[in-house]
Amino acid sequence: MTLRLDDSSITVAIVGCGGFIGSHLLDAVLERTRWRVFGVDLDFYRLQHRLNHERCEFLCADLADPAVVERIAQFPLVVNLAAICTPSRYMGEACEVIRSNYDHPAALAEACARSGAWLVHFSTSEIYGRTAPDSGELIEDETPVVFGPVAASRWSYATAKLLAERFIAGLPGLKWTVVRPFNFVGPYMDFMPGVDGEGIPRVLANFSTALLRGEPLKLVNGGKAKRCFTSVHDAVDFLFALFNAAGQDAGPGTASTAGVFSQAFNVGNPDNELTVAELAAKMRQIYAEIRGVDVATLPEPQNVPGEVYYGAGYDDSMRRMPSVEKAERLLGFRASTPIDVCLRESLAWFVNHYSV
Ligand code: UGA
Fold this sequence. Notes:
The protein is an alpha/beta fold. The chain has one domain: Rossmann fold, CATH 3.40.50.720. The protein contains 11 helices and 13 strands. The chain has a 7-stranded parallel sheet, sandwiched between helices. The chain has a two-stranded parallel ribbon with strand order 7-10. Helix 1 links the parallel strand 1 and strand 2. Helix 2 packs across helix 4 (about 95-115), helix 6 crosses helix 8 (about 275-290) and helix 8 (about 275-290) crosses helix 11 (about 340-355). The longest helix is centred in the N-terminal third of the chain and has 22 residues, at about 95-115. The protein is globular. The model has no long low-confidence stretch (mean pLDDT about 95). Uridine-5'-diphosphate-glucuronic acid (UGA) binds near residues 85 and 181.
């Protein structure tokens, strides 16, 4: 595959371009390459500064429209970030969650198989399922997965994402790579409830909102679950490691395809593991420093049962520790942004953005 970053004849289609990861990827593509971008989303508020860029074309649409799917697949490289991926929606909106995370990506994968486009599909670390507190490293091609029962509708999302991965991997002729994000954090993550979104965002945005409003941070089931928080800038660097490697890869069926195609990659930072309670403590401390106040003046975190907070059917993964050996070995990539740097950047951005 010829995929040079300085090749101005290449257009990358970014589906979910207006979202948290998509907006960062768009900036990086415009800054680091000469490619054009075909950006698809339903919402472009994060992209105001790019709407008139000469190398961008934007389409307000989603993958429910077969004509849109066919159009996207005409580009040589398709990055699919579109998904419903906030846990608070996995219970009450299970069917929509499954359509968004299985039906739509499957249709896009089929179109890419027909056209020959390389599909970089964003899956999730949640496909590893209901991990235990003492679960070890999650290894892409080894770790078995256990989900909760059907009544625990939290798993609607992970089930759909895992099925989409299996569909993609099984589709004859498709040139594919799957990315499994481990709790990416950074500016523009999710939303502030009541301002630019409704409901419960993921933990970083939720804690940031509570801090800004002077409310207690809510620790679901005591905040014992552990996550490895990963800078969105590292995530973008991973994609460029992938693009660079693909430029040197002759394509499926050749000896070198092991590096890029037909592979699922964890993208996470194992050095940044915290319990949610530890995350709350760090965020309170950093917020106090940003505001120049004593942390003791901020409200203490409060415990809340998961089923009260999110509704019936909530369940959790207790530890998500990525193995990053595969990305290091095949792509020479390892996430490197320390947790304090991630949180300071994210909180400073949140305070500045929403205080205005
Ligand atoms: C979610 C998605 O389901 C994944 O697909 C996605 O990959 C992942 O986010 C991610 O950001 O990468 P999860 O890690 O459970 O999974 O998302 P959060 O809502 O951020 O929750 C993390 C932990 O914090 C959970 O244990 C949750 O119960 C807890 N939490 C969340 C709180 O204690 N308080 C809150 O206000 C919010």
